[in-house]
Amino acid sequence: MWDSRLAETVPQVRDRIGRALERGGRSGQSVRVVAVSKGHPLEAVRAALAAGLTTLGENRIDELAEKVRVVGRSAAEWHMVGHLQRNKARAGIRLFHRIDSVDSLRLARALAQEATRAGLMVRGLLQVNVSGEATKGGFEPEQAVDAVGAIAALDGLELHGLMTMAPLTDDEVVLRRTFARTRELLDECHRQLPSALHGRVLSMGMSNDYEIAIEEGSTDVRLGTVLFGERDDP
Questions:
Q1: What residues contact 49, with CB distance under 8 A and at least 6 apart?
Q2: What CATH number corresponds to the domain at position 218?
Protein backbone atom coordinates (compact mmCIF):
# COMPACT_ATOMS: atom_id res chain seq x y z
CA MET A 1 0.00 0.00 0.00
CA TRP A 2 2.56 2.59 1.11
CA ASP A 3 5.11 1.68 -1.57
CA SER A 4 2.56 2.02 -4.36
CA ARG A 5 1.15 5.26 -2.99
CA LEU A 6 4.55 6.93 -2.66
CA ALA A 7 5.62 5.64 -6.07
CA GLU A 8 2.79 7.81 -7.39
CA THR A 9 2.91 10.83 -5.07
CA VAL A 10 6.66 11.43 -4.76
CA PRO A 11 7.27 12.04 -8.51
CA GLN A 12 4.17 14.26 -8.62
CA VAL A 13 5.44 16.36 -5.73
CA ARG A 14 8.96 16.57 -7.19
CA ASP A 15 7.52 17.77 -10.49
CA ARG A 16 5.34 20.39 -8.81
CA ILE A 17 8.33 21.61 -6.79
CA GLY A 18 10.39 21.96 -9.97
CA ARG A 19 7.68 23.97 -11.69
CA ALA A 20 7.21 26.20 -8.62
CA LEU A 21 10.95 26.91 -8.59
CA GLU A 22 10.77 27.95 -12.23
CA ARG A 23 7.78 30.22 -11.61
CA GLY A 24 9.66 31.81 -8.72
CA GLY A 25 12.72 32.45 -10.87
CA ARG A 26 14.71 29.90 -8.89
CA SER A 27 15.64 27.42 -11.61
CA GLY A 28 18.62 25.31 -10.62
CA GLN A 29 17.88 25.62 -6.92
CA SER A 30 16.56 22.82 -4.74
CA VAL A 31 14.00 22.46 -1.97
CA ARG A 32 14.21 19.99 0.89
CA VAL A 33 11.12 17.85 1.41
CA VAL A 34 10.45 17.15 5.07
CA ALA A 35 8.09 14.19 4.77
CA VAL A 36 5.76 14.50 7.75
CA SER A 37 5.48 10.91 8.92
CA LYS A 38 3.90 11.75 12.28
CA GLY A 39 0.84 9.67 12.97
CA HIS A 40 1.72 7.17 10.25
CA PRO A 41 2.88 3.62 10.97
CA LEU A 42 6.34 2.14 10.64
CA GLU A 43 5.41 0.70 7.26
CA ALA A 44 4.93 4.24 5.95
CA VAL A 45 8.34 5.26 7.29
CA ARG A 46 10.02 2.29 5.62
CA ALA A 47 8.28 3.07 2.33
CA ALA A 48 9.30 6.72 2.57
CA LEU A 49 12.93 5.79 3.08
CA ALA A 50 12.76 3.39 0.14
CA ALA A 51 11.28 6.20 -1.98
CA GLY A 52 14.22 8.47 -1.18
CA LEU A 53 12.48 10.59 1.44
CA THR A 54 15.21 10.68 4.03
CA THR A 55 14.17 13.79 5.97
CA LEU A 56 11.19 12.90 8.14
CA GLY A 57 9.05 15.07 10.40
CA GLU A 58 7.66 13.89 13.73
CA ASN A 59 6.12 15.68 16.70
CA ARG A 60 5.83 13.10 19.48
CA ILE A 61 8.77 11.85 21.48
CA ASP A 62 7.32 8.42 22.23
CA GLU A 63 6.28 7.79 18.64
CA LEU A 64 9.66 8.82 17.29
CA ALA A 65 11.51 6.76 19.89
CA GLU A 66 9.72 3.64 18.67
CA LYS A 67 10.42 4.41 15.02
CA VAL A 68 14.08 5.12 15.77
CA ARG A 69 14.30 1.88 17.74
CA VAL A 70 13.16 -0.08 14.70
CA VAL A 71 14.72 1.70 11.72
CA GLY A 72 17.63 3.46 13.47
CA ARG A 73 18.35 7.12 14.07
CA SER A 74 20.83 7.22 11.19
CA ALA A 75 18.25 5.93 8.71
CA ALA A 76 16.84 9.41 8.32
CA GLU A 77 17.27 13.00 9.40
CA TRP A 78 14.51 13.45 11.95
CA HIS A 79 12.95 16.89 12.35
CA MET A 80 10.71 18.06 15.18
CA VAL A 81 7.83 19.76 13.39
CA GLY A 82 5.49 20.50 16.30
CA HIS A 83 5.62 22.15 19.69
CA LEU A 84 8.23 20.63 21.97
CA GLN A 85 7.52 20.84 25.69
CA ARG A 86 10.45 22.03 27.75
CA ASN A 87 10.35 18.91 29.93
CA LYS A 88 10.94 16.85 26.77
CA ALA A 89 14.05 18.80 25.76
CA ARG A 90 16.48 16.20 27.10
CA ALA A 91 14.89 13.38 25.12
CA GLY A 92 14.32 15.61 22.10
CA ILE A 93 17.93 16.57 21.54
CA ARG A 94 18.93 12.92 21.48
CA LEU A 95 16.26 11.86 19.00
CA PHE A 96 15.78 14.79 16.62
CA HIS A 97 18.49 16.06 14.31
CA ARG A 98 16.80 19.46 14.09
CA ILE A 99 14.14 21.24 16.12
CA ASP A 100 12.12 23.14 13.53
CA SER A 101 9.87 24.82 16.12
CA VAL A 102 11.93 26.82 18.60
CA ASP A 103 8.97 28.95 19.62
CA SER A 104 10.09 30.62 22.87
CA LEU A 105 13.21 31.75 24.69
CA ARG A 106 12.33 29.39 27.54
CA LEU A 107 12.41 26.42 25.18
CA ALA A 108 15.64 27.67 23.58
CA ARG A 109 17.30 27.92 27.00
CA ALA A 110 16.12 24.44 27.96
CA LEU A 111 17.48 22.97 24.72
CA ALA A 112 20.78 24.79 25.11
CA GLN A 113 21.14 23.69 28.72
CA GLU A 114 20.46 20.04 27.93
CA ALA A 115 22.73 20.14 24.89
CA THR A 116 25.58 21.64 26.89
CA ARG A 117 25.20 19.00 29.58
CA ALA A 118 25.27 16.26 26.94
CA GLY A 119 28.15 17.76 24.98
CA LEU A 120 25.96 18.18 21.90
CA MET A 121 25.20 20.96 19.45
CA VAL A 122 21.50 21.21 18.62
CA ARG A 123 20.31 22.70 15.34
CA GLY A 124 17.04 24.59 15.28
CA LEU A 125 14.79 27.02 13.45
CA LEU A 126 13.12 30.02 15.03
CA GLN A 127 9.35 29.74 14.70
CA VAL A 128 7.69 33.04 13.83
CA ASN A 129 3.96 33.68 13.95
CA VAL A 130 3.70 35.97 10.95
CA SER A 131 -0.02 35.31 10.47
CA GLY A 132 -0.81 36.62 13.95
CA GLU A 133 -3.23 33.77 14.65
CA ALA A 134 -3.77 33.10 18.34
CA THR A 135 -3.83 29.35 17.70
CA LYS A 136 -0.28 29.37 16.38
CA GLY A 137 2.88 29.53 18.47
CA GLY A 138 6.09 31.33 17.80
CA PHE A 139 7.63 34.77 18.05
CA GLU A 140 5.86 37.85 16.76
CA PRO A 141 7.59 39.32 13.68
CA GLU A 142 8.82 42.35 15.62
CA GLN A 143 10.46 40.02 18.15
CA ALA A 144 12.35 37.91 15.64
CA VAL A 145 15.64 39.81 15.39
CA ASP A 146 15.99 40.20 19.15
CA ALA A 147 15.11 36.53 19.67
CA VAL A 148 17.75 35.42 17.18
CA GLY A 149 20.30 37.58 18.97
CA ALA A 150 19.38 36.20 22.38
CA ILE A 151 19.56 32.60 21.20
CA ALA A 152 22.86 33.19 19.42
CA ALA A 153 24.35 33.98 22.83
CA LEU A 154 23.44 30.50 24.15
CA ASP A 155 25.90 27.63 24.06
CA GLY A 156 24.71 24.37 22.57
CA LEU A 157 22.04 25.68 20.19
CA GLU A 158 22.50 26.91 16.62
CA LEU A 159 19.73 28.57 14.66
CA HIS A 160 19.80 27.86 10.94
CA GLY A 161 16.83 29.95 9.84
CA LEU A 162 13.13 30.58 10.32
CA MET A 163 9.94 28.53 10.23
CA THR A 164 6.36 29.72 9.86
CA MET A 165 2.89 28.36 9.23
CA ALA A 166 0.47 30.22 7.02
CA PRO A 167 -3.26 30.46 7.73
CA LEU A 168 -5.38 27.59 6.44
CA THR A 169 -6.88 29.47 3.55
CA ASP A 170 -7.20 29.44 -0.23
CA ASP A 171 -6.59 33.20 -0.36
CA GLU A 172 -3.38 33.44 -2.35
CA VAL A 173 -2.84 37.05 -1.34
CA VAL A 174 -2.83 36.11 2.34
CA LEU A 175 -0.50 33.17 1.75
CA ARG A 176 1.98 35.17 -0.31
CA ARG A 177 1.99 37.97 2.24
CA THR A 178 2.78 35.52 5.04
CA PHE A 179 5.60 33.82 3.18
CA ALA A 180 7.08 37.02 1.78
CA ARG A 181 7.11 38.63 5.22
CA THR A 182 8.95 35.60 6.64
CA ARG A 183 11.54 35.85 3.89
CA GLU A 184 11.98 39.54 4.67
CA LEU A 185 12.45 38.71 8.36
CA LEU A 186 15.20 36.24 7.52
CA ASP A 187 16.93 38.86 5.40
CA GLU A 188 16.60 41.38 8.24
CA CYS A 189 18.09 38.94 10.75
CA HIS A 190 21.09 38.40 8.48
CA ARG A 191 21.52 42.14 7.93
CA GLN A 192 21.38 43.06 11.60
CA LEU A 193 23.04 39.95 13.03
CA PRO A 194 25.26 38.53 10.27
CA SER A 195 26.92 35.92 12.49
CA ALA A 196 23.90 34.87 14.55
CA LEU A 197 22.31 32.50 12.04
CA HIS A 198 24.17 29.47 10.71
CA GLY A 199 22.15 29.16 7.52
CA ARG A 200 19.39 30.62 5.38
CA VAL A 201 16.71 27.99 5.91
CA LEU A 202 13.13 29.09 5.29
CA SER A 203 10.82 26.29 6.37
CA MET A 204 7.43 27.30 5.08
CA GLY A 205 4.78 25.57 3.05
CA MET A 206 2.66 22.50 3.71
CA SER A 207 0.53 20.22 1.56
CA ASN A 208 -2.06 22.88 0.76
CA ASP A 209 0.26 25.79 -0.01
CA TYR A 210 3.81 24.56 -0.64
CA GLU A 211 3.97 25.67 -4.27
CA ILE A 212 3.22 29.27 -3.32
CA ALA A 213 5.73 29.04 -0.48
CA ILE A 214 8.43 27.89 -2.91
CA GLU A 215 7.63 30.73 -5.29
CA GLU A 216 8.18 33.07 -2.32
CA GLY A 217 11.55 31.57 -1.37
CA SER A 218 10.95 28.51 0.80
CA THR A 219 13.90 26.14 1.12
CA ASP A 220 12.12 23.43 3.18
CA VAL A 221 8.52 22.25 2.75
CA ARG A 222 6.73 20.09 5.31
CA LEU A 223 4.56 17.62 3.42
CA GLY A 224 2.33 14.98 4.93
CA THR A 225 -1.11 14.59 3.38
CA VAL A 226 0.02 15.15 -0.21
CA LEU A 227 2.48 12.26 0.20
CA PHE A 228 0.92 9.85 2.68
CA GLY A 229 -2.76 10.73 2.61
CA GLU A 230 -4.87 11.57 5.62
CA ARG A 231 -3.77 10.26 9.00
CA ASP A 232 -6.05 8.09 11.12
CA ASP A 233 -4.88 10.13 14.13
CA PRO A 234 -4.63 13.77 13.07
A1: 71, 75, 76
A2: 3.20.20.10
* CA separation for the pair 120, 23 (Å, rounded): 40
**Domain carrying residue 94:** 2-228
Tell me if 128 is assigned to some domain: yes
How many structural domains is the chain composed of? 1
In a domain, 233, yes or no: no
Indicate left, alpha or beta for 229 from its phi (over 0: left) and psi (-120 to 50: alpha). Answer: left
Residue 55 CB-density burial (10 A; 0-12 exposed, 13-18 middle, 19+ buried): middle
CB distance 218 to 179 below 8 Å: yes
Asked if residue 234 is part of any domain, the answer here is no
**Cα separation, 5 vs 136, whole angstroms:** 31
pTM exceeding 0.70? yes
pLDDT in tens, 124-177: 999 999 998 888 999 999 999 999 999 999 999 999 999 999 999 999 999 999
